[in-house]
Specification:
about 425 residues; four-stranded parallel beta sheet; alpha/beta; about 20% strand; single chain
């Protein structure tokens, strides 16, 4: 179903050990805590039909939506003889729940999975056309053996063309700590390749290439797309500061993402687990259920993201351009004269252009603030949106040029009319 709300979701929700109170009832405070972090689309683990329905009822009461996990959905991918019956049973159990947003099907498929995913998604849509099916794709830095194609853009386009998903989703974790690859015995070949591909270099290349391939495929298929951004320290991925998280969030928004997910909400694994090769640390919530520094960062960012995202989510992305230094991107540099902007100067600036005269300016520099100088066409009014107060302010200057400051990694919304 179409929506006009910007959804903010997550991976790794509340684990079974913290889901319920001593009397066995759901711990409502845990879900309120998620809502106060700025999450409005909850992705719980599969806790069984009865508990899943209780979660859906609680989320409805709290004004939250749910992407549902149920083991029967994954089983239906391979059990062709019973696929329809499995999918029908899932729909029968959950489709009447008002908080249900959609069904989680699969994470990071190989191309050989596309046919089964397409058939399953088609059958599920026929049984329940009101709720989406969700599949997440690999990033562009994994080995081609995991994709099934020699070219990442081909992988994405073949997925959209074959599977025909209602939304395109991927994850790309850009910020690394430059540690060497540790020596672990990982028997599973797929998991070994994923682990090794994570250790490339500090600030691996390809962040913009990845989002540009996703955006192009989503636009061609006329579907929205979602970016899963890094939050939790793990493996080679470093402990992010707020400016680095803002960079991920507002660059994604500038490119036209209509949904955003954090990896992760709850910290996976357990402290000092010798078998934990990823060495998980500092999700929004730690292993013991306590908020971390990332919880407060995400809550601040999400209040602003929600305000801006709700304005842009129904508006068509018309283009993405770069001003100044443009490393690691295939997108064209800014061309003066677009959408009422006579000139735009600055450095390390991404410009997301949307219909109705909206522009999202995002700072690519997550270490320092930058200034953008925008010159409007004669007779045009330039307004800037205040993400904290939710108000628009007309920019005034002695000339047609306006100096707009952007904090490290941050973004701001402009309207020209």
């Amino acid at each position: 179903m179409p929506n006009q709300a910007f959804y903010i979701t997550h991976w790794c929700g509340i684990p079974p050990s913290h889901l319920c109170r001593a009397d066995g009832s759901l711990d409502e405070a845990r879900f309120v805590q998620m809502k106060e972090a700025g999450l409005n689309l909850i992705a719980p683990y599969d806790h069984g039909v009865a508990t899943n329905r209780d979660i859906l009822a609680l989320c409805h009461r709290l004004g939250l939506r749910v992407t549902l996990s149920d083991h029967r959905l994954h089983h239906a991918l391979t059990d062709t003889a019973h696929r329809h019956a499995l999918l029908q049973s899932v729909v029968d159990d959950y489709a009447d729940c008002p908080a249900l947003h959609g069904y989680y099907l699969f994470d990071e498929p190989h191309s050989r999975d596309f046919t089964a995913l397409a058939e399953t998604l088609e059958q599920l849509a026929q049984i329940d056309p009101l709720h989406e099916s969700y599949i997440n794709l690999f990033a562009n830095y994994v080995p081609t053996a995991l994709l099934g194609y020699d070219d990442y853009a081909t992988y994405v386009r073949q997925f959209t063309g074959t599977v025909k998903p209602p939304i395109l989703s991927y994850d790309h974790y850009h910020f690394l700590n430059d540690e060497p690859l540790p020596a672990y015995d990982i028997p599973n070949e797929r998991e070994r390749m994923i682990f090794e591909s994570a250790y490339n270099r500090e600030n691996r290349p390809g962040f913009f290439d990845n989002i540009e391939d996703i955006r192009a495929a989503a636009m061609d298929a006329d579907i929205p797309f979602m970016v899963i951004v890094l939050l939790t320290e793990h493996g080679p991925c470093r402990d992010l500061n707020e400016a680095e998280i803002r960079f991920e969030v507002f660059q994604s928004l500038a490119y036209g993402a209509s949904r955003l997910s954090y990896f992760t909400y709850w910290t996976p694994g357990a402290p000092n687990d010798p078998n934990d090769i990823w060495r998980w640390k500092a999700g929004m919530i730690d292993w013991n259920g306590q908020p971390t520094h990332h919880y407060d960062m995400a809550a601040r960012i999400n209040r602003e993201l929600q305000a801006v995202g709700d304005i842009l989510v129904g508006k068509r992305s018309l283009g993405v351009y770069h001003v100044g230094t443009c490393p690691d991107t295939k997108t064209a540099s800014w061309c003066d004269g677009f959408g009422g902007i006579a000139a735009l100067d600055g450095d390390q600036l991404t410009v997301g252009c949307f219909e109705d005269g909206y522009f999202l300016l995002a700072n690519k520099d997550y270490r320092r603030p930058i200034a953008a100088v925008l010159t409007a066409d004669e007779g045009k009014t330039v307004e800037q949106y205040d993400k904290q107060s939710g108000t628009w302010t007309a920019l005034r200057s002695a000339t047609a040029s306006h100096r707009i400051m952007l904090d490290a990694g941050d973004g701001t919304l402009i309207r020209i009319h």
